[in-house]
Amino acid sequence: MVDPGAPGYIELEGTGKFYYPSGATYEGQWKLLNPPPPPQAEEPKEAKKKKGKDEPPPPPAEPPKRVRHGKGVYREGDYVFEGEFMEDLIQGQGTFTYSSGAKYVGEWKANKYHGKGSYIWPDGRKYEGMWEENRMHGLGVFTDASGHKWEGQFFNGSGPGLSALV
User: Fold this and answer.
1) How many CA within 13 A on the CB side of residue 53?
2) Contact criterion met (CB below 8 Å) for 90 and 81
3) In which order are the strands placed within the sheet that holds 25-33?
4) Phi-psi region for residue 124, left (φ > 0), alpha (ψ -120 to 50) or beta?
5) 3-state class of 4 per DSSP?
6) Which of 12, 83, 96, 116 is the most exposed place for a label (fewest CB within 10 A)?
7) Where does this protein have coiled-coil stretches (predicted)?
8) Within 10 Å of residue 52's Cβ, how many Cβ atoms?
9) d(CA 51, CA 48)
10) How far apart are CA 148 and CA 106, in angstroms?
């Protein structure tokens, strides 16, 4: 185990709060992308001489960056996401609440509704079922504002040939 007080120690993961220029905040788990390489001993003079003078230097490394990774809460104005992140993308399970009061609860992939989930509109309409790339896609049930349910296969956000459930 590395001593956090040791010279050159860098935290690779942790929990904390991020503040964004837009006023948004994130509070939760994070990880460090592109950590600097551990310090190495200086190259022997013979190895330096063997390298050709015409060899270009290696490209500079990407700077280290802390990103959302794990469970957390992201808030931007009246929008709130609570759930899982993977390398700064919404990925896994989570709930997104819109300023209108609409809400999506379910699976995410690369910042999009993807997998099994529910979307609830402020007027009471609801869709429960499969999602692909932010669209209702696959088997699902849509309930209208008066409580009537429609079941069937959805394709790219629409439901041709749905059956009314009585």
Assistant:
1) 0
2) yes
3) 13-19, 25-33, 65-76, 79-86, 89-97, 103-109, 112-120, 126-132, 135-143, 149-154, 163-165
4) left
5) coil
6) 12
7) none
8) 6
9) 6
10) 22
Q: How far is CA 110 from CA 59, 92, 134, in A?
A: 29, 9, 10
Backbone angles phi, psi at 100, to 5 degrees: -75, -15
Q: Would you tell me how many other CB atoms lie within 10 Å of the CB of residue 45? A: 8
Type of residue numbered 44: P
Dihedral angle, C-alpha 86, 90, 95, 98, nearest 10 °: 150
For the four alpha carbons of 100, 22, 92 and 113, in that order, the dihedral sign comes to positive
**HSE-CB of 107 using CA atoms within 13 angstroms:** 12
Tens of pLDDT, residues 111-159: 999 999 999 999 999 999 999 999 999 999 999 999 999 999 999 888 8
Q: Is the pTM of this model over 0.85?
A: no
